[in-house]
Specification:
316 residues; alpha/beta; five-stranded parallel beta sheet; 13 strands; globular; NAD; oxidoreductase; D-iso_2-hydroxyacid_DH_PdxB; D-2-hydroxyacid dehydrogenase
Length: 316
């Protein structure tokens, strides 16, 4: 059987699939050509990340398709229910990228509280002529230890983020309408561990209480953070979104950054991908990455081998 990994797959995933008797195709096929390629090459499995969309048109056009796999968590680029109604298995890898995304959240948090994203822009330009001025500009850093991190969505990635926060000595609060409480286990290198219970609270109370807020939710129909929500937050709050674009009102966010209500934002995802608004790209209070939450070698290895394992178990 043939597998089309249209958005790529790790070498370990390819080896596992080939060992299981599958032929893996890593040719990048344009979105509008996916259906033709699948049919012409008798592809049974299509694997995607976030770039390729597998909608009703492709599902209807490809009667030989047996599995659609998403390397990662979010499934908003796949018509999941429709595919299942046609007898197609839909799989993903919800646990594989949790640690990588959580580490990126803290990369943005550390960058924000110490102004690294802005100092890295200005040091090459002014470091030799305005060293003392830049030193003064970036002298009001903030420690994360002892502060409160509000985690919106305490699923796998939210829990991984909470563990890192607890390890730093932060207080963690959470809001999740589907998970009333969760036991979070922080494990250390020597086998010791501590476990604490996080009880979900209302979004409103989280917004009022948190010093920093991180979002870990699927795609939404509306904003989770808009003008009203920003207004009730603490002055000088920091906000990080490494989940999905469109859950923060970016116009309201820029206004809050410009007024000083929000100290900084860290964004890995944007309302308009792959062409974020210039008002976001040029804002010196935003730490930005181009949707790379799961883009570590370790995460991609886990994603590839987990997809291979699921495919082999379903079709062999």
């Amino acid at each position: 059987m043939k597998v089309l990994a249209n958005d790529g797959i790790s070498k370990s995933g390819i080896l596992a699939l080939e060992k299981g008797g599958f032929e893996v195709i890593t040719t990048k096929v344009a979105q509008e050509q996916v259906a033709n390629f699948v049919n012409e090459n008798s592809v049974s499995v299509v694997l995607v990340r976030s770039a390729t969309k597998v909608r009703k048109d492709i599902i209807d056009a490809c009667p030989g398709l047996k599995i659609i796999g998403r390397g990662g968590v979010g499934m908003d680029n796949i018509d999941v229910d429709y595919a299942k109604s046609k007898g197609i298995h839909v799989i993903n890898t919800p646990a594989s990228s949790s640690e990588s995304v959580a580490e990126l959240v803290f990369a943005h948090l550390f960058s924000g509280v110490r102004f690294l994203h802005d100092s890295n822009r200005n040091m090459p330009l002014e470091g030799d002529t305005n060293f003392e001025g830049l030193k003064k500009a970036y002298a009001n850093g903030i420690e994360l230890r002892g502060k409160t991190l509000g985690v919106v969505g305490i699923g796998r990635i939210g829990q991984a983020t909470a563990k890192m926060a607890l390890s730093l000595g932060m207080k963690v609060i959470a809001a999740d309408m589907f998970i009333p409480q969760v036991d979070v286990k922080v494990e250390f290198f020597d086998g010791q561990s501590i476990t604490t219970t996080i009880v979900s609270q209302s979004l409103e109370s989280l917004f009022k209480e948190a010093d920093f807020i991180t979002l870990h939710v699927p795609a939404q129909d509306g904003y989770i953070i808009g003008e009203k929500e920003l207004a009730i937050m603490k002055d000088g709050v920091g906000i990080v979104n490494c989940a999905r674009g469109g859950v923060i009102d970016e116009v309201a966010l820029v206004k809050a950054l410009d007024s000083g209500k929000v100290l900084f934002a860290g964004l890995d995802v944007f309302e308009n991908e792959p062409t974020p608004e210039m008002a976001i790209l040029m804002n010196h209070k935003i730490s930005m990455t181009p949707h790379i939450g799961a883009a570590t070698g370790e995460a991609q290895d886990r994603i590839g081998t987990e997809l291979a394992s699921q495919i082999i178990s379903l079709l062999k």
